[in-house]
Structure formats: C-alpha cells, structure tokens
Amino acid sequence: MNTSIRAVSLTLKELVLEHLKQDINLRAFFDPAMGGTMLVSLLAPEQLSRSHEGVSIWLYRILRDDQTLNYPPTRSTRDRLLHEPLPLRLHYLIVPVVDVKQRQDGPELEQNIMGAVMQVLHDHACLRGTDFQGDLAGSTDEMHVRLEALDLDQMSRMWDALEHAFQLCTSYEVSVVPIDSALQPRPVAPVDVAMPTYALITSAEET
Fold first, then answer.
1. Judging by DSSP bridges, how do beta strands 126-128 and 75-77 pair with one another?
2. What's the longest Cα–Cα distance across the chain?
C-alpha cells in the first residue's frame, strides 16, 4: 500500500495521545473530558503554536533503507513474483508546544510532556499488531521506533530552516516502513521440486 507513511504517523499520534490522557500529571491538559485543550498533532511545531498547545509529531525527513532494499523477492503464488517494496526510514521531530510566556510553569510543563512522550515511545519501541492505526491496522508488519542522537548543530540548523526560536525537542526514527509496488506480479517459472545438494567440507591438508 502507498498509505503506510500516513498510517505510521497516525499510529504515533494515537499512541502518544492515549498515554498523555492517562498520565496522572498531564491528563488534565490533554483529556477533553477533564477540560484539557492540548492536542497531539502532526503539524510542524510553528504551525501548531499559532492556535494550540500540545505536542507536535512532525515528519521532517524520509530516507530509503538501503540495508533491506535488496532482500530477495517473494512469490504471491507459485508462478508470480512480487515486485520489491520501497523500504523507508521515517524521521520525526517531537516538540512539546507550550506557551511559556503565559504559563508560569511553562518550562516545567514542557519537560514533563517530553518525559511522558519519551516514556511511551521507549515502552513501544517495537510496533506491531494492535498498535497500528489507519491502513496498517490488523497487519502483520513490525516496525521499530528508535531515539536518534542529533547534535546541537543539527538541531540549530533545523530550527533556522523553520525560522523559529530553538525549542526543547528530540528526534525519533521509525523503520522499516514499506511502500508496496503498484506493478502487477511478474510471471516466473514455478518451483515444482527443490533439489538441495550437500557436500562435505574438508580442509586443504586433508585433500
């Protein structure tokens, strides 16, 4: 499917939101039933900050995963070979968006939110089964969530590109996310019988 990127983003959004709504220190901010108005959004942080507070889970970079690009193809039937999917690594910037000018405890709240987000992503470092949302729901795929080590220079360049003041943030990578080919499976000769061969490995001295 070509909607895997969106599905992964929705999965992270729902995972983080449900955790924040259950966190004893943060649920009053994120649970509408308790009057919470903060959001978990896929908008870039500067876009979210124009109208709301909350958490920005912003997909800022997509790379091809070269390590799995050349995996052997699979057969859909005995005489049809699937075209290889495009394997991707998705990079997300996680930013707690808090109006520190209006909130006396703004910096503390930012750090509390960040700690809760990092907690849930650490506890769900492997996404599978019921974790998935969108078109990945019910799939047998397995994806890994990894905290990235971005140095201060990388972070600074990112915020400069956004034309926004530097904020508390971190980055996570989700891999491997497959984009299936839209091409029809190609015909190949069916495998009727496998004929494995065996040989005894001997040292040069023995020969």
1. unpaired
2. 83
